[in-house]
Amino acid sequence: MTPAPLAARLSIPSGPLFFPVTAYGPDGSLDLDAYRAHVRRGVEAGAAAVFACCGTGEFHALTPEEFRTCVQAAVEETAGRVPVVAGAGYGTALAVRYARLAEAAGADGLLAMPPYLVVAGQEGLLRHYREVAAATALPVIVYQRDNAVFTPETVVELARTDGIIGFKDGLGDLDLMQRVISAVRTETSGDFLYFNGLPTAEQTQLAYRAIGVPLYSSAVFCFAPEVALAFHTALNSGDDTTARRLLDGFYRPFVELRAQGRGYAVSLVKAGVRLRGLDVGEVRPPLHEPTEDHVKQLAQLIERGYALLEEGK
Question: Angle between the 225-237 and 292-311 helix axes, to the nearest 10 degrees?
Fold first, then answer.
């Protein structure tokens, strides 16, 4: 049986969207065995999709060859059970290259990240993402953050572009997002997916859900899948009591810890995976590892998160 298109598979996810870390060995090279185990465990834990080699997966630190190897490994480990979406970024020529590498590796879609370095106008951004979308048959989700910020009018044009199926927000401007959603709803005829892409998106998902953004990234799923799944279930079932208990007791303290160091949105997550028994190595430069004290605090937070699950039974 042919799987449903990516948009249909993501529209009502059965579990959190999983953004695996990329595993490295002691010498800094890829550790594919650990990476495969990480992806496999995530799918078995209930992930609805695997977003391979994206922000949490250190897309910025991978060579094109490593990128293709990791995407292919993720595709093989999921074995069609859930879709695999791969990152693509940098300037237009390189983004197109990564898009084609992802397609060759068997990915089901692309998360198109901001262009490298430059701050472009709306016309240039639109052309960039249209060229990426035209380069392969893979459906594209455009990621708004940093130097790629869009007006509602530009998002309407993105939504009208063949191959672009969704919009992920890592900016956090809810007023802008509400205007984007309204403009796309009134000026286009097709369905369009929206994602909350802020770091530790659970912290803001109650607000995003209220304006019509049902999908979100879950980096916590990398190291505490049961906590992330419990939050996802509570959110989708309207159990705001459980959602708020997890927000107050786990997610808010985790966000506050994450704010203690630059790059902790990745390196702290990777430390969490190691704390749970899978050695995925350290982050590559220019990111750096969390301090020993911060790792101890993370271990205590993870214990607290699982204790909260027991309290809710």
Answer: 50
Given 24, 35, 129, 168, which residue is catalytic?
168
List helix spans (H) across 107-203. Answer: 122-135, 152-159, 174-187
Q: How many whole angstroms from its chain centre is CA 292?
A: 26
Alpha-carbon gap, residue 145 to 173, rounded angstroms = 10
Q: Is 175 exposed, middle or buried (0-12, 13-18, 19+ CB in 10 A)?
A: exposed
Element of type H or E holding 301? helix 292-311
Could you report the per-residue pLDDT of 229-258, keeping only the tens digit for each?
Answer: 999 999 999 999 999 999 999 999 999 999
Active site residue 296: no
Q: Cα(132)–Cα(112) distance, rounded to whole angstroms? A: 8
Which residues lie closer than 8 Å to 233 by C-beta, 6 or more apart?
A: 239
Q: Give the active site residue among 35, 143, 194, 216.
A: 143
Tell me which DSSP letter residue 162 carries. T
| Strand spans (E) along the chain | 17-18, 49-52, 84-88, 109-112, 140-144, 164-169, 193-196, 215-218
Under 8 Å between Cβ of 127 and 121: no
CA distance 228 to 137: 32
3: pLDDT confidence band, cut at 50, 70 and 90? low
What would you report as the CA-atom Rg of the chain, rounded to the nearest whole angstrom? 18
**Paired tokens of 3:** 């799987």
Measured CA to CA, the distance from residue 228 to residue 42 in angstroms comes to 11
